[in-house]
Structures are given as structure tokens and as C-alpha cells.
């Protein structure tokens, strides 16, 4: 998979060189590129924003550099999926990550200030599928934090990124439930013991216990996931 990220703060993404995603980039499993939007400006000040039409506080990101950036990046594949992190978008869920992990090419545009000129989204739709995606019902200073989260959630689902693919199946939200509690050695720590069932060697009973724990955790912590 190829992922292109456009931001006015490209160094924000230096952390993607670490851990599993960093190894995936080095091995070629994940083709990730981070671009500075200012590289597509033409004035000596490398301007990417201007005052909003109609008045109001703040600045709006100009359409010209975004248009040039999208033209160049979208030309590298036939079916790019163009994502703009936005509090006005669909909520990013595990199902969203699974869907995006099947795509060939993702372009993620990180807005700043009061947002991006609306015409950019309209134009982007002529180049590929456009999705506005939100991490939740709150506002961040820009799209970089959301983009980082999305890249990690999507990237780890690409075959070969996570060493043990079975670990992906048992995680929170993969089957609509939260993950069961995990324990390791020592079996007793500060007067707290590991549940006896996990020491029994009875794999069927352990699986049933873990499923019960998933349901109970979800009921207590995220009852919204269980529906009516």
C-alpha cells in the first residue's frame, strides 16, 4: 500500500519511522511518503492561507497549493482514496480501518487554521474517492494527530506489518466487543493473583472465560457497542 500525507508540519510524522510501521517502511511493505504543502506554493513567502470570504475569525487554507498537490499525488495511481481528517466527517472506527487497509493508495490531507477551502473537497472528488473522517466529537488544532492515528490503525492491518496475525483477531473492536484482560508472569503480584482459569491448561474453558470477560467489559465500559 502507498500512503501520501500532505501537511504544513511534515516533521510531525517523524514518529512513523519507529516500531512496526518503521520496519514495514524499511522492508517495503508500507510505501509511506510525507509531503510539505508549501512545496506547491509559488510565492516567496510560501503562503498557504488567507482571510475567509464573508468575514470571521481565523484563516482558511488556500485552494491553489492543495489542487497542485492532489494533481501530482493522485496521478501516481488509478484509484486513490483521498482522506481529510475533519470533525465534520464520519467517525473513524475499526471497520473504517479494515476498509481502508484494502485500498491501493491513500492520500491524507491535513488541514489547519479554520479549515480548507471547500472547493478543494469538490475538486478532489474528481480525482478519486473522498472521505472526511473524524476521530471523535472534539476539535484538534490540525489534522496531523488524526492522520497519525489513522495510519497506525490502517497500517497494522496490512499483511506482514504485525508479526503474529492472530493477535489482530483478538483485539478490541474486531468482533464488536472490547478485548479480554491479559496477564503474564509472575502469577502473584502485590497480593493480586492471575485468575485460576488461565493456569488450568483447559483451553476450551479459557476461551469461554475470555469471551465472557469481553461481553462483561463491553457491557460496563461501552454498552453502546452492544446495541439494544
For this entry, give a set of tags.
7 helices, five-stranded parallel β-sheet, alpha/beta, 18% strand, two-stranded antiparallel ribbon
In short:
This protein has helices at residues 19-27, 63-74, 94-100, 118-124, 144-155, 166-169, 203-221, and strands at residues 2-7, 31-36, 49-50, 60-61, 81-91, 105-109, 129-134, 188-189, 192-193. With 228 residues, the chain is α/β, with parallel strands linked by helices.
Polypeptide structure, described:
- There is one protein chain.
- The protein is α/β, with parallel strands linked by helices.
- The protein is 31% helix and 18% strand.
- It has 7 helices and 9 strands.
- It has a 5-stranded parallel beta sheet. The chain has a two-stranded antiparallel ribbon with strand order 3-4.
- β8 and β9 form a beta hairpin.
- α2 packs parallel to α4.
- The protein is elongated and about 70 Å long.
- The mean pLDDT is 92.
User: How would you name the oligomeric state of the polypeptide chains in this document?
Assistant: single chain
Helix/strand-derived category reads: alpha/beta
In sequence order, what are the helices and strands, one letter per element?
EHEEEHEHEHEHHEEH
Helix content: 25-40%
Segments where pLDDT lies below 50 for 5+ residues? none
- Average pLDDT, all residues: 92
> How many runs of DSSP E, i.e. beta strands?
9
Number of helices: 7
**Measured distance between first and last alpha carbons:** 38 Å
Question: Biggest β-sheet, characterized?
Answer: 5 strands, parallel
What does the overall shape look like? elongated
Radius of gyration: 22 Å
Strand content: 15-25%
Report strand order across the widest sheet: 2-1-6-5-7
